[in-house]
Amino acid sequence: MTTLEAVRRRVESDARTYGYYLNPDSKFLADLIEGLKTNEDRYGYPSCPCRLASGKFVVDRDIICPCDYRDPDVIEYGYCYCGLFVRKDIVEKKKPIQSIPERRPREKIALASKPQKMEKPTEFVPALTAIHLKTKLKMWYCKQCGYVVFREEPPYICPICKAKKEMFEEIRATIYLGT
Amino acid sequence: MKIVKVNGRKRSHKVFMYAISTCAWCKRTKQFLKDNNVEFEYVDVDLCNDEEQEKVEREISRRGGELVFPTLIIDDKILIMGYKADKISEALRL
């Protein structure tokens, strides 16, 4: 069993690393932290409190907080799907926020409600890899410190040296994934 | 499936909500409906068993939705995905 304090410390540290803020609404934030703790206790990992998890790691891996969709969502909407991580300008605007569209691929969402998910979750790996490959992942490097990352867009700030997004350059290379 | 009914004075629309027990947007939607005195029913889908979850997925897909939460079904036809206070107010004429 984890504690609310441990979850809070972890998300605070993660927000600092990536240059985000936590949701400024303290009640909303407390609900999210409690949701993450509940998921960590029942599934063994802190999957997104606002998404339906299957309870199987291989299927839920992309929605473990911080989820795979956090950074593109913060870039596009100013905050992540559950509203935990928020961009500075949104915090400063103090405007009430509402739900944003779900970025997770439909095929993955559909898997979460299938009863067969409980039997051999590893059978889903090739399908999950195929869905993953459909996204436009690229390699980026930080021109200030050399940190390399593989994702659609460069991070909001460099998690290592805190350089801004503009300091990232794309590495053009051919990458072979899976088989 | 454990369906919870929340009483309210406004009963002119049938409001049903698919929610997740840990979801902050779902909690906010429930609170919004309570604050506006709207009677509604909800089910926390994460607490349902596999068969029930499949049934929920079919119910939502049939209406053109996806398994995203909260999903609100108003009068068996209007589907609102996510916490959208303005859309809920419009549909319920609040």
In short:
Chain A is α+β, with helices and mostly antiparallel strands and 179 residues long. Chain A has helices at 4-18, 26-43, 57-60, 70-77, 88-93, 106-111, 125-133, and strands at residues 21-22, 85-86, 138-142, 148-151, 168-171. Chain A starts with a helix and ends in an 8-residue tail after the last strand.
Give the name of the CATH architecture of chain B: 3-Layer(aba) Sandwich
Euclidean distance between termini CA atoms of chain A: 38 Å
Placed side by side, the strands forming the largest sheet of chain A appear as 4-3-5
Average of the residue pLDDT scores of chain A? 88
The parts of chain A where pLDDT drops under 50 for at least 5 residues are none
Number of helices of chain B: 3
Distance between the termini of chain B: 29 Å
- In CATH terms, what is the architecture of the largest domain in chain A? Alpha-Beta Complex
Q: Count the strands of chain B?
A: 5
The amount of helix of chain A comes to: 25-40%
Structural class of chain B: alpha+beta
Please bin the fraction of helical residues of chain B.
25-40%
Q: CATH first level of the largest domain in chain A: which class?
A: Alpha Beta
* Count of separate DSSP helical elements of chain A: 7
Order of helices and strands of chain B: EEHEHEEH
Mean pLDDT of chain B: 94
Fraction of residues in β-strands of chain B: 15-25%
What does the main sheet of chain B amount to?
Answer: 5 strands, mixed
